[in-house]
Amino acid sequence: MAELILAAVKPSALSQVVINTHSALFSHLNLCVTCNFHLYALKGSEWPEANPETVAMISYAAKEVSWPNNGSIKVIAPKSPSHITIAVPGCVTVTIDWEDNSVQVTKHGESSSQPVGGSERLRDDGGELVVLLSRQENTTHVAVYAESVGGGFDSRLQSIEMPACNISKVVISSPKSKNLKDFQVGVSKEIEQLYV
Fold first, then answer.
1. Nearby residues of 28 by Cβ (< 8 Å), 6 or more positions away
2. pLDDT at position 21, please?
3. How far is CA 110 from CA 54, 79, 131, 133, in A?
4. In a 3-state reduction of DSSP, which class is residue 138?
5. What Å distances lie between residue 129 and 7, 81, 82, 148, 183, CA to CA?
6. What DSSP element (H or E) covers 189?
7. Contact predicate 42/2, CB 8 Å
8. What's the rounded Cα separation, in Å, for the pair 24 and 32?
9. In this structure, what are the phi and psi dihedrals at residue 81, rounded to the nearest 5 degrees?
10. Is pLDDT of 43 > 70?
């Protein structure tokens, strides 16, 4: 499991990398597609602690803030394991099972998940992945852009009504792999400014 503790983010050389990957996917939705996503590194118990000078996360101090309107979180991986879970604890969880061609979204406090259908089959062994979580008013938009068996990408979109929730971290876990170093998390300025 790897965690990005949002309360611990600090500007660094790494955090100034701007992520706009696949923004065209979200252009038909009223999402924060033009905003800059500052990149942060993940810290996990499966690998040695990184040099604080090269990562944006330097402590485990926790601070919860209300997920702001238009606040967006983007998760990117050049090669996702075949089963991956991305959670914003207390708010929403996205589970992607590549082998079963399944994307599920679960609201905090609910036992059942909502399936997110797609038009193409995902690669069985995992692949390139972009997940965008964006909040507007009382709605959370989930957009998943995942590599398909045909070599292209499948877009899966879901909007769910959800009351206000507090965020403090992004948790990425997989029963299929302990190496999640290649995952990157971007947060929009609406979220980042709450931790400055």
1. none
2. 35
3. 38, 29, 21, 18
4. coil
5. 25, 10, 11, 10, 9
6. helix 189-192
7. yes
8. 11
9. -60, 165
10. no
Per-residue pLDDT tens digits for 163-193: 889 887 788 888 777 667 777 787 887 887 7
Burial class (CB within 10 angstroms; exposed 0-12, middle 13-18, buried 19+) of 143: buried
CATH code for the domain defined by 2-195: 2.60.120.710
CA distance 108 to 137: 17
Q: Is residue 193 helix, strand or coil?
A: helix
The Cα 118–Cα 139 span in angstroms is 21
Q: CA-based Rg of the chain, rounded to a whole angstrom? A: 16
| pLDDT average, residue stretch 61-67 | 72
